[in-house]
Fold this sequence. Notes:
Helices cover 31% and strands 36% of the residues. The chain has one domain (16-191): Aminopeptidase (3-Layer(aba) Sandwich), CATH 3.40.630. Mean pLDDT is 91; it is low at 1-15. Strand 9 (164-175) and strand 10 form a beta hairpin. The chain has an eight-stranded mixed beta sheet with strand order 3-4-5-6-7-8-10-9, with helices on both faces. A two-stranded antiparallel sheet has the order 1-2. The protein has 196 residues and is α+β, with helices and mostly antiparallel strands.
Amino acid sequence: MVVESDDRGPATSFRLFAHPLPAGELRLLAPYDAPAFLALIDGEREHFEPWLPWARELRTVADAAGFIARGTQRYADCGAPWVGVWSGGALVGGVLFWPLDEMGNHIELGYWLARAAGGRGLMTDAVATLVDYCFAELRLNKVVIRCAATNLPSRGVPERLGFTTEGVLREHFILDGTPLDLVFYGMLRSEWKNPR
């Protein structure tokens, strides 16, 4: 068990999160990962920026460290880790969680992956591992993923994992003056069967 919690609410203590994957590893992003995180963003800026507005704001190691610090705080607050996806000893992607919706007992996650690391199921394995974690460790009822309708590689992750398409949020996200539709995916704890 990674997070220790009790009936009083969110996690009362935590330790580092790490989990092996068939082709890599998930690890909690830590302050010393800031240079590698910035290098990943810099090397994939053209790939990430159409979908990840926060990637545009990360320009220095201090920016990357601040981003990681927000994830560390999220983990401390509710047990939802912001993790790096590592393969061959290199940071190639990551998964973050938005704030926990306590009334609905659900959480939303988002992810990013370097182009060269795609096509091997690495992100699908990472997301499946974290969905397991959300249901088994955090005892959540639902996990949500929202993807731009035109971002087909991103949409493939929840679709391969059996998430239900719950609707399309029309022109819900505006980037560079262009409105984008978001496809809303959901998975309930009662229906989760990890296919990986």
